[in-house]
Amino acid sequence: MVVPEINPDHIEIIESQRKRLGTKRGFIAVKSNCSIQSYVPALHPLRKFGLKNVLACTYQAISGAGKTFETWPEMVDNLIPFIGGEEEKSEQEPLKVWGTIENGQIVKASSPNITTQCLRVPVSDGHTAAVFVSFENKPSKEEILQLWKEFKGVPQELELPSAPKQFIHYFEEDNRPQAKLDRNLEGGMAVSTGRLREDTQYDYKFVCLSHNTLRGAAGGGVLLAELLAAKGYFD
Questions:
Q1: CB-based contact 223:155 (threshold 8 Å)
Q2: Which member of 38, 67, 80, 129 lies 3.0 to 4.6 Å from 210 by CB, making a disulfide possible if both were Cys?
Q3: Domain range holding 144?
Q4: How many folded domains does the chain comprise?
């Protein structure tokens, strides 16, 4: 399970996978759940400060259920506060993405503590997340913004065709990011953040947005394939 900018080293487990399956060619490599790709990229460069507790509420577009407003008219002027299995994935998959390879297996990270709520909202495309986070060593707002601005992953270093040049974009405006305005940023492959501010119970809170059918689905799969090709896994 790979998000190319976050855990590209996990593709190394393919060799263990082939040994286990007794194969020399082919492999199974998957992208993560679309919901975590809205907020995990923003959290990733902040791990150096010791992520302790994360609360994320995701507001997920109807295309994530394979629907449109024409095929799902019940979603017009509506909100459904439950998406089956989504909260479990949103709480566990980040720990797997941040895990380590030990003896040919992925061992999940032990922190941070993550709790989520996932809601279906009347938006065609784009998953938004409201995120609250506390740290072992609280950074300044300026440090967070600088890390987001400077963060580059292997796809950017390799200049892979589908990789956004600027992975994380921060909006200064209080009313951004917005799904309709910002989901297609850099071909729908970038992650948008905004409204970073201190919180009364957590250290900080902010809002994230990603395009669920591009970065979170087909585009993310293509970018993973590009990474695998660049690393010589296709022959």
A1: yes
A2: 38
A3: 8-230
A4: 1
Known catalytic residues are 34, 127
Residue 159, exposed/middle/buried by CB under 10 A (0-12, 13-18, 19+)?
exposed
Q: Which two tokens stand for residue 73?
A: 């008219």
Sign of CA dihedral 16, 20, 22, 25: negative
Q: Residue 188 is inside which H or E element, if any?
A: helix 185-188
The sign one gets for the Cα dihedral 87, 10, 50, 177 is negative
**How many other β-carbons are positioned within 10 Å of the β-carbon of residue 69?**
13
pLDDT per residue rounded down to tens, the chain (235 residues):
999 999 999 999 999 999 999 998 889 999 999 999 999 999 999 999 999 999 999 999 999 999 999 999 999 999 999 999 999 999 999 999 999 999 999 999 999 999 999 999 999 999 999 999 999 999 999 999 999 999 999 999 999 999 999 999 999 999 999 999 999 999 999 999 999 999 999 999 999 999 999 999 999 999 999 999 999 998 7
- As a whole number of angstroms, the distance between CA 66 and CA 207 comes to 24
Instruction: Tell me if 1 is assigned to some domain.
Output: no
Q: Could you tell me if residue 63 is inside a domain?
A: yes
| Residue 155 falls inside a structural domain | yes
Q: Whole-model pTM above 0.70?
A: yes
Domain with 189 in it: what CATH number?
Answer: 3.30.360.10
